[in-house]
Design a protein that fits this description.
Elements lengths: L1 E3 L3 E2 L7 E2 L2 E6 L20 E4 L7 H16 L3 E3 L18 H6 L4 E10 L2 E10 L4 E10 L4 H17 L8 E8 L6 E8 L6 E2 L6 E7 L5 E8 L2 E8 L5 E3 L6 E7 L5 E8 L2 E8 L4 E4 L7 E6 L5 E6 L6 E6 L6 E2 L6 E7 L6 E7 L2 E7 L7 E2 L5 E7 L5 E7 L6 E6 L5 E3 L5 E7 L5
Parallel strand pairs: 5-6, 5-7
Antiparallel strand pairs: 1-4, 2-3, 4-9, 7-8, 8-9, 10-11, 10-33, 11-12, 13-14, 14-15, 15-16, 17-18, 18-19, 19-20, 21-22, 22-23, 23-24, 25-26, 26-27, 27-28, 29-30, 30-31, 31-32
Helix pairs in contact: 1-3
Length: 439
């Protein structure tokens, strides 16, 4: 089985390009693997895995380090300390000595070999079930040497999917608002990075305040709001060409843009005289349709994965709550039922949940509920948590968190609420948006 991935390019400043071929070498797993994680259990224990340095020098060690970090950050795996490894210099061409790995209780083993031929990087890797003494997966990736991190993320995704039965989310990017300069002199720039915080770069200069960036379904276009003292503008930004264009001029303040699942429309809000309503623009014809007309604040529209419905935030009942309507504005009804103030709803890619920000008393939470408003669960609690965004597999949420007097930082939490952790990006950041899996 051979699959070729199309070339992906970012703007020149992003220095990112890839032509990666994947070949399945061996898929010798039985119908059901001996090791299989049930990710839907709230009490799942991280699976011990060994990820020794791949053969092939420093780049092999670097690839293994990224794989181990990805798996550990998922909260579902516990990479073992390399100092405990008994067998050394393991390569993809040789079957491991399983007894040596059983001794340290490694249930999964990921090993590989890196070679460079004709200016191309080739990475062969194997995933082993140690106690069953069998290979679960074998793949070969070919790419340009500078894209070794991308290969590491793809291997991480393959391991994650084989052991959990769900798609991984490591070969993705995150667009967000990077903040610098301190309070009162804050500069907000549109930024993008790999999901593990690597390769950060800026897409805007900081001459205006940017807010609410959102990815299109094709991963190569984003929309965001730019705010100046006398105006606001919604832009489309193409990551391949670095071309930026405005959605147009509107009477009033425009904000909170978000793409439809097919990327052909953008929903947004327009504020006029203290009242805001939700509109949808067809990007081909550039015609807009008004969906709400209530004398209240209607905003933060998010489409269902099939594009048939929209969840949004409105204070028409006296406080910010979550409402549902058809994609044409029909059948508007409230779905949130608990006490508190609900904002920033976003539908999960699987359609299973709607995530939101909730304020109760002096605390903020990231929570999820079913699309009908049932099964509400609060996953986080802090001084200020807001703005959730979903990983493409619907398993993990990223959001921004502030402490009193501190800058916003990017955090993540899984849908069980058990795996809560700061993201690796060291700077101040807010308004994250997760990309779909890259092609």
């Amino acid at each position: 089985m051979t699959k070729t991935l199309r070339t992906l390019s970012r703007p020149t400043a992003l220095l990112f390009s890839l032509l990666c071929a994947i070949t399945a070498l061996v898929l010798a797993a039985p119908a059901r693997a001996e090791i299989q994680l049930n990710v839907n259990r709230g009490d799942v224990q991280p699976l011990p895995v060994a990820v020794p340095a791949f053969g092939g020098g420093q780049v092999g060690a670097d690839i293994a380090e990224v794989i181990g970090a990805n798996l550990q950050r998922s909260g579902l795996f516990r990479p073992l300390d390399p100092a405990s490894f008994v067998e050394k210099n393991l390569t993809a061409a040789v079957q491991p000595r399983f007894a040596d790995w059983k001794t340290i209780n490694a249930q999964g083993l990921v090993n590989g070999q890196v070679t460079v031929e004709g200016g191309k990087l080739r990475v062969d890797f194997r995933l082993w079930d140690v106690f069953a003494e069998q290979q679960l997966l074998g793949l070969q990736f070919t790419s340009s040497p500078e894209n070794w991190r991308r290969v590491a993320h793809k291997i991480s995704d393959a391991v994650y999917e084989r052991l959990t039965g769900e798609k991984g989310y490591f070969d993705t990017r995150v667009v967000f608002v990077a903040e610098s300069g301190g309070r009162g002199k804050t500069i907000k720039r549109l930024a993008i990075m790999d999901q593990d915080g690597a390769n950060p770069s800026y897409l805007t200069t900081g001459d205006s305040i940017v807010m609410t960036p959102r990815f299109s379904s094709n991963s190569q276009e984003i929309t965001y709001m730019s705010l100046r003292p006398d105006s606001s503008t919604i832009y489309l930004f193409n990551l391949e060409t670095a071309r930026r264009e405005s959605l147009g001029t509107f009477q009033g303040m425009v904000f909170a843009p978000r793409f439809s699942p097919d990327g052909g429309k953008v929903a947004f809000s327009v504020e006029r005289g203290g009242n805001s309503d939700i509109f949808v623009m067809n990007l081909s014809s550039r015609t807009s349709t008004r969906l709400t007309s209530d004398p209240a604040i209607d905003t933060s529209a998010s489409f269902s994965p099939d594009g048939s419905k929209i969840v949004f935030n409105s204070d028409r009942g006296g406080s910010p709550q979550l409402y549902m309507m058809g994609a044409d504005g029909s059948g508007q009804r409230r779905i949130s039922g608990g006490g508190g103030r609900y904002t920033t709803p976003v539908w999960s890619p699987t359609g299973e949940f709607i995530a939101f920000t909730k304020q109760t008393g002096g605390e903020f939470h990231i929570g999820v509920m079913r699309p009908d408003g049932s099964d509400e669960r609060l996953l986080t609690t802090s001084y200020l948590d807001e703005g959730p965004t979903w990983a493409p597999n619907g398993r993990v949420l990223m959001f921004s968190r502030e402490t009193p007097g501190g800058p916003p930082k990017l955090w993540s939490v899984d849908v069980t609420g058990r795996i809560l952790q700061p993201m690796p990006y060291p700077g101040a950041g807010s308004d994250p948006a997760w990309s779909p899996l890259l092609n």
